[in-house]
């Protein structure tokens, strides 16, 4: 019996069953001739399909197509892995910044069709931004000098040619599993030599650009995050006692250039500086200046940061780059409120700080830190301690004894530098810094012969000054009003500077307070000299 006979028998049986079911129904629901014909037609069209191989052909064809598609992409991935080099750059690492800066300056980048636009200073401050209009050269910080940054967009693929080779760059956002995403770049190129050449070029461009700024990093959960970029300051802009800044700078330079010497003698390659003394005396400014002179980034280590404990501190310090400045500001307050030799005692082993009484009147003590003194010591020079960095710790206390003897010993804090209140020399140099023209600012040792003036000549200058200011309810340092430009010959300014220095008692006020005072007379040096004596007496009364 062939298949057609079987189909006919099945149709006949089904038809009989259907007719029987309609007959057994109640009289109110009689079978419809049209319904019976429809059922017969449907069964007639479906049954031959079930006994044919057309559906099997469709299934096999779709499966074969999917297998070919997967095979093609598998082969393509193998070809990519075999002939292309894939490099990943994490956002937390410096090479990521190299690549982002290099891509933003590449000629083909100007042809990109998908970009991210940001007005925030990125990587190295405002130096790589694209201006939106004419630049006001007379005032570089003017609001009219707006600029934007065009950055590679995330989840986009950018292609370019480099040294005759095809390169792909993909910027991705990776899920870290803790409700945070981390940026990364993937770069594909044909040969390892091409990748190496690209990295060398990118790093050189980065170093050239960053020579103008100092980058500041802060601890962010489990990694260092770039916080800001600040302009470098020349060494002579920080007015300290003669030779003081130069001594620290030369010591740091000598250390950074002595790595082989340390290694040959088995001495840990680390250097620590403890800067202590009066507030506003230039400790932080000096560190900023040294970072610029040495081309180092600054990593701020906050011992009172929420969530910081011994293991976290060791992790952060171990992830510092080989050449950098690690800064621990106001380390005395961390000892006063949190650091201790063991976690069971929240009090400091060194006793209260000399200025603890005044601090307690202003702010409530912070919560106990999770860092112990032993943990800090191990982080600084333990077995897992990082080498190659410069450590700077600052304190506003008058004596270095505020630190535990184990912390301030050589090997951890090698050089102790005291910052005292301003001397007459510093007051005179600060006055010159304020009122001499930029091209006339020079560092001089001793008295300038051109600047020597007789007392009578100085008196004439003072008598020609403006009348005293009226009393004002506003206290503090106010800027001079615009439009009050002045021009005095250099000899007159030097004479006024000498007179100003003699009006300020030795070691009676900080450099910060002197600067605040001169800010009120930014364009009126004669008034600043005339009223300096009365101001100094008022400041002495506040102490």
TrEMBL record:
Q: Which residues form the AAA+ ATPase domain?
A: 269-423
Spell out the residue ranges making up region: Disordered: 339-368, 447-481
Locations listed in the record: Mitochondrion inner membrane
Alphabetized SMART domains for the sequence: AAA, BCS1_N
Residue ranges of the BCS1 N-terminal domain?
59-238
Q: Name one GO cellular component term.
A: mitochondrial inner membrane
Q: Spell out the reaction equation it catalyses.
A: ATP + H2O = ADP + phosphate + H(+)
Q: Name one GO molecular function term.
A: ATP binding
Q: What is its main location?
A: mitochondrion
Cite the InterPro entries for this sequence.
Answer: AAA+_ATPase (IPR003593), AAA_lid_BCS1 (IPR057495), ATPase_AAA_core (IPR003959), BCS1_N (IPR014851), Mitochondrial_chaperone_BCS1 (IPR050747), P-loop_NTPase (IPR027417)
**Residue ranges, compositional bias (Low complexity):** 340-358, 464-473
Name the keywords, alphabetized. Answer: ATP-binding, Hydrolase, Membrane, Mitochondrion, Mitochondrion inner membrane, Nucleotide-binding, Transmembrane, Transmembrane helix
Which Pfam families does the entry link to?
A: AAA (PF00004), AAA_lid_BCS1 (PF25426), BCS1_N (PF08740)
Q: Which domain of life is it from?
A: Eukaryota
> Where does the sequence pass through the membrane?
none
Membrane topology classification:
Single-pass membrane protein
SUPFAM superfamilies documented for this protein: P-loop containing nucleoside triphosphate hydrolases
Family affiliation: Belongs to the AAA ATPase family. BCS1 subfamily.
Q: What is this protein called?
A: AAA+ ATPase domain-containing protein
The organism named in the record is Antrodiella citrinella
